[in-house]
Automatic annotation (TrEMBL):
<keyword id="KW-0520">NAD</keyword>
<dbReference type="Pfam" id="PF25137">
    <property type="entry name" value="ADH_Fe_C"/>
</dbReference>
<comment type="similarity">
    <text>Belongs to the iron-containing alcohol dehydrogenase family.</text>
</comment>
<dbReference type="GO" id="GO:0046872">
    <property type="term" value="F:metal ion binding"/>
</dbReference>
<feature type="domain" description="Fe-containing alcohol dehydrogenase-like C-terminal">
    <location>
        <begin position="189"/>
        <end position="398"/>
    </location>
</feature>
<feature type="domain" description="Alcohol dehydrogenase iron-type/glycerol dehydrogenase GldA">
    <location>
        <begin position="11"/>
        <end position="178"/>
    </location>
</feature>
<protein>
    <submittedName>
        <fullName>Iron-containing alcohol dehydrogenase</fullName>
    </submittedName>
</protein>
<dbReference type="InterPro" id="IPR056798">
    <property type="entry name" value="ADH_Fe_C"/>
</dbReference>
<dbReference type="InterPro" id="IPR001670">
    <property type="entry name" value="ADH_Fe/GldA"/>
</dbReference>
<dbReference type="Pfam" id="PF00465">
    <property type="entry name" value="Fe-ADH"/>
</dbReference>
<dbReference type="GO" id="GO:0004022">
    <property type="term" value="F:alcohol dehydrogenase (NAD+) activity"/>
</dbReference>
<dbReference type="InterPro" id="IPR018211">
    <property type="entry name" value="ADH_Fe_CS"/>
</dbReference>
<dbReference type="InterPro" id="IPR039697">
    <property type="entry name" value="Alcohol_dehydrogenase_Fe"/>
</dbReference>
<keyword id="KW-0560">Oxidoreductase</keyword>
Amino acid sequence: MVEMYAVLRSPLEIVFGAGRRAAIAPMTAELGRRALIVVDPFLATSPELAQLVDALAAAGVESAVYSDVVPELPTRGIAACADAARAFGADVLIAVGGGSSIDMAKTCAVLTAHGGRVSDYYGERRVPGPVAPIIAVPTTAGTGSEVTPVAVVTDETRQVKVGISSPYLIPRIAICDPELTLTCPPGVTAASGADALCHAIEALTARKHTAADGADADRVFMGAGPFTDSLALEAIRSLAAGLPRAWRDPGDLDARSRTMYGATLAGLAFGTAGTAAAHALQYPIGAATHTSHGIGVGLLLPHVMAHNLPARMPEFARIATALGADAADQDELAARAPHLVQELLRGIGIPGSLAEIGFPRERLAWAAAEGLRARRLVENNPVPLSEDAALAILESAYAGSLRHLTPTTTGDAR
Ligand SMILES: NC(=O)c1ccc[n+]([C@@H]2O[C@H](COP(=O)([O-])OP(=O)(O)OC[C@H]3O[C@@H](n4cnc5c(N)ncnc54)[C@H](O)[C@@H]3O)[C@@H](O)[C@H]2O)c1
Ligand SMILES: [Fe+2]
């Protein structure tokens, strides 16, 4: 008998639909009386925010606004947000913005509830208990942070991105209104959309979880399984249908909706399954080049896929089909998947090589060693990632051509 074992973690409620930001105020009123609104700076002076504050007041909720959010979330700003939440006596947080704003609300909630410094919580399951409820309202279609158990911050002392992962960080409610993404410029659409595609593909191809692992009780990111596979595959379909169109025509609401739907599904998938090598290797690349998370993972993804291909042929064939390819031969389909992903991402302006984003060639070995320090991500990769393998992937990404990478054998797949 095939073992039926599946795990999924998610918010209590997810509302998806154009215009559904109208649900923020009434849903907040069910959770608290004093709301700190953590809002992306691009919305700070908008009529939208003024309307939200009025709607909250009409629902009997007092609110204060915190808008000092810096992209990629440097840790130095987080204590100030927590101070603002404490001073206001917030009992609920509303995050409206990109991943940086939602992650600000998550880390702020942790510091407000449990004290200490952000670095006290780096890693998995180090948040000791519940935090104030968060209503997450994304304005980018990318990170999936509205449904995930992780916040990613930039630690300035180490000049790297670090994750805080705990089921307590999952927002209580996610309200996904694609109209809020209509103002994203193409660069933001591309970077956040590439991140979403990477979440879906890394979740679908991650190491597989089994009941015998016992990971459901110990780990936050625990590998792929039936729930997350279904969500990841549908995410890839939806992103393929929406992302290139949303990038070309920012005002196309149907394209925006499909892209945001895909990004949220991808968040649900990786929120339990986790991500892998592309996310691990992006950390040093982002630190050295000051490029966004989405650009880095998008650039690396096809090269990581080429490395992982032999271990995940059936999944790669499904990915190629989800991206619109058609062939009778499943192996041929699978082999096309990294190329199809690269074409899609280049088509929306993701840079083609590490050389193009100014990464110095002589630092490739440093980046390989540094990327391997993200142990949990590396362990989640379907094939083990030695320092040599990480370097080979980075050399391929430096050249920007998939021909430079010789895939490993299937023997050591997990
Ligand atoms: N917590 C998670 O699950 C998770 C997952 C992946 C990535 N991340 C993190 O999220 C961050 C990236 O988030 P992001 O890609 O959403 O970008 P972001 O939040 O950093 O925002 C990027 C830029 O876009 C602007 N912006 C946001 N929405 C806009 C809109 N609708 N119109 C116009 N401008 C808009 C912002 O003001 C900012 O200047 C990184 O720190 C990354 O590491 C978190
Ligand atoms: Fe990501």
